[in-house]
Amino acid sequence: MMGEQTREGGGTTMPGRDQEPRSYYVGVDVGTGSVRAALVDQRGILLAFADQPINQWEPQFNHHEQSSEDIWAACCVVTKQVVQGIDVNQIRGLGFDATCSLVVLDKQFRPLPVNHEGDPHRNIIMWLDHRAVSQVHRINETKHSVLQCVGGVMSVEMQAPKLLWLKENMRETCWDKAGHFFDLPDFLSWKATGVSARSLCSLVCKWTYSAEKGWDDSFWKMIGLEDFVADNYSKIGNQVLPPGASLGHGLTPEAAKDLGLPAGIAVAASLIDAHAGGLGVIGADVRGYGLACEGQPVTSRLAVICGTSSCHMGISKDPIFVPGVWGPYFSAMVPGFWLNEGGQSVTGKLIDHMVQGHAAFPELQAKATARCQSVYAYLNSHLDLIKKARPVGFLTVDLHVWPDFHGNRSPLADLTLKGMVTGLKLSQDLDDLAILYLATVQAIAFGTRLIIEAMEAAGHSFSTLFLCGGLSKNPLFVQMHADITGMPVVLSQEVESVLVGAAILGACASGDFASVQEAMARMSKVGKVVLPRLEDKRYYDKKYQVFLKLVEHQKEYAAIMKGD
Ligand SMILES: Nc1ncnc2c1ncn2[C@@H]1O[C@H](COP(=O)(O)OP(=O)(O)O)[C@@H](O)[C@H]1O
Ligand SMILES: O=C(CO)[C@H](O)[C@H](O)COP(=O)(O)O
Question: Which of helix, strand or coil describes residue 264?
Fold first, then answer.
């Protein structure tokens, strides 16, 4: 099915039509549910956008797989769409970002199966796959020093546990035949240039690579993956480049044909999607908005990329060790800065799950369709209808949610935690669905508040949130994040900020900007500021107390059931 397409001249008129841009850059963002591309000019204005859904397979609980061939094909569709009608010779650079999913190829770069069905088309273990639970438990039991750079506890969503799972469970059909293991962003830049160099971003954040010391042989030997040490890391990458560096001789003729772009244009070393989102928002010029972060260092800004999951990206001049929060990672997002990444594994996915699984969802769907609205726009207006004189957030005074339906990524770093809902009644009508949706949105915001508290207790100091990703298009989600954290929320002028981040990479690789920081300052702009309703602070402080009690009780229940 052809994805949605908006572009300059056709469909919605994009801003910036009035001036002919000097240079174009193409950004490609491979998210969980779809591939998006954008044509962006040197001011960071989006001139064209296209998206294309991608398949996901869930052959068994907690196994999530994709196809690198599907994803590349979708990249080709959307890239061709966004460059239609322009002089492609004005395109100066191309940048990719993607989820940190694991791509498996044989020695001839052909896909290998990561499943017991032996289907090589499904050669990607996705970022949210939780199959490697016993492997990550054993890795964490080692207490190896590299774990200090992932908040002290390695996530089941990182690559080492998944690689160990493949070695232990797919020896003949996959592991012995494997020639290359890529993080998805690096697979895309390899596909575009034929250069198998990896990005510092992916290797530092998901593979335990150190910007300073490189690979740690003792770690791989200790966890049972000494194979990589033996061949000098050729399968997982022994050439590493900073994000935005220009790869090889740029776009190969074959990839140029696939993508509909000129051969030889600069292609950048990639970023993971959350990091591209951070690049796309965190450097915006905030003068004139009366924000506390005006005149403060960029380290006072927390970027929150809210899509299927939410990633909380905070940077610092010196390394900060935050227990249960990934990092500190050097130069993994903004060159020269240390990065800590908090996160919630399911946020958009959780909201979709709660809404679609409710008894009143068919009625909601019919009513939203009749109004030509998304179900979320309909729910937001329905909440305004039923809130009466109270602020909308007060509707959940006796309905509370703990959001860890897919474990807790940060700051508790406990994949055994589960979701919780308290305050249910017998009724299951549209009002109940709307209030449960609201309580879920609030629970996600409380999770963000808990992550911020952990990061600030370790040394960060934030004054402003910079939101992007699909959920930042939901006004209720944004307002609840402002009200519950007590911080103003900045939304970018370009809502597709992750794509601006990918385009920034392409702009840097082209040499049009002297640094990533210069490109960030020029290409990301404030669109809107949402201020917190501080008059509601007391209410949310009380709901936060309940929120924290929920996980305390969950742990008590688990202890009781574990006891004899
Ligand atoms: N306009 C919108 N209003 C409310 N929620 C949205 C909107 N657009 C996307 N979402 C939600 O955002 C999530 C997808 O986020 P997105 O950043 O687009 O994708 P990905 O996680 O694949 O990068 C989904 O849960 C979807 O329901
Ligand atoms: O772990 C990640 C980033 O560090 C994943 O790539 C991210 O959580 C998935 O992104 P999205 O929710 O946008 O699909």
Answer: coil
13 falls in which pLDDT band (50, 70, 90)?
A: very low
Closest Cα to atom 1 of ligand 1: 473
Alpha-carbon gap, residue 146 to 144, rounded angstroms: 6
CATH classification (class only), 24-269: alpha beta
CB-based contact 329:323 (threshold 8 Å) = no
Please name which of 74, 96, 189, 99 lies closest in space to residue 506, comparing C-alpha atoms. Answer: 96
Is the pLDDT reported for residue 8 higher than 50? no
> How far apart are alpha carbons 166 and 224 in whole angstroms?
12
Q: Is the CB of 280 inside a 6 Å radius of any atom of ligand 1?
A: no
Q: What is the mean pLDDT of residues 436-452?
A: 99
- The pLDDT mean for the chain works out to 95
* Ligand 1 touching residue 471 (CB < 6 A): yes
Q: Give the ligand 1 atom nearest the CA of 377.
A: 3
pLDDT over threshold 80, residue 1: no
Q: Which two tokens stand for residue 129?
A: 């796959």
Domain boundaries, the chain: 24-269
The pLDDT value given to residue 21: 56
**Centre of ligand 1 from the C-alpha of residue 117, in Å:** 31
* Ligand 1 pocket mutation, candidates 376, 438, 468, 492, criterion most atoms within 8 A of CB: 376
Selection from 340, 335, 307 nearest residue 205 by Cα: 340
Closest ligand 1 atom number to CA of residue 349 = 25
Task: Give the atom of ligand 1 at the shortest distance from the alpha carbon of 351.
Answer: 25
Closest ligand relative to 49 C-alpha: 1
Output the residue whose Cα is nearest ligand 2's atom 7: 99
**What is the number of the ligand closest to the CA of 3?**
1
**Which ligand 2 atom is nearest residue 274's CA?**
3
What is the average per-residue pLDDT within 160-174?
98
Q: Could you give the angle at which helices 475-485 and 430-457 cross, rounded to 10 degrees?
A: 40
Closest C-alpha residue for ligand 2 atom 9: 99
DSSP letter string over 365-395?
Answer: HHHHHHTT--HHHHHHHHHHHH-TTS-GGGG
Distance (Å) from CA 529 to ligand 1 centroid:
20
Q: Is residue 534's pLDDT more than 80?
A: yes
Q: Is the CB of 344 under 6 A from ligand 1?
A: no
Give the pLDDT band of residue 202 (cuts 50, 70, 90).
very high
C-alpha dist (Å) from residue 366 to 144, 378, 461: 54, 11, 45
Taking residue 552's Cβ as centre, other Cβ atoms within 10 Å add up to 8
Close Cβ partners of 340 (under 8 Å, ≥ 6 residues apart): 151, 313, 314, 315, 316, 320, 322, 325, 326, 327, 328, 329, 455, 458, 460
- pLDDT the model gives residue 18: 53
Residue 498 has pLDDT above 50, yes or no: yes
Query: Could you tell me if 125 and 158 are in contact, meaning their C-beta atoms sit under 8 angstroms apart?
Result: no
Q: How confident is the model at residue 22, as a pLDDT?
A: 77
Can you tell me the distance from the alpha carbon of 455 to that of 304, in angstroms, rounded to the nearest whole number?
Answer: 13
12 pLDDT band (50/70/90 cuts)?
Answer: very low
Of all ligands present, the nearest one to the C-alpha of 201 is 2
Unique residue bearing structure tokens 């998304």 = 374
Q: Which pLDDT value is given to residue 19? A: 59
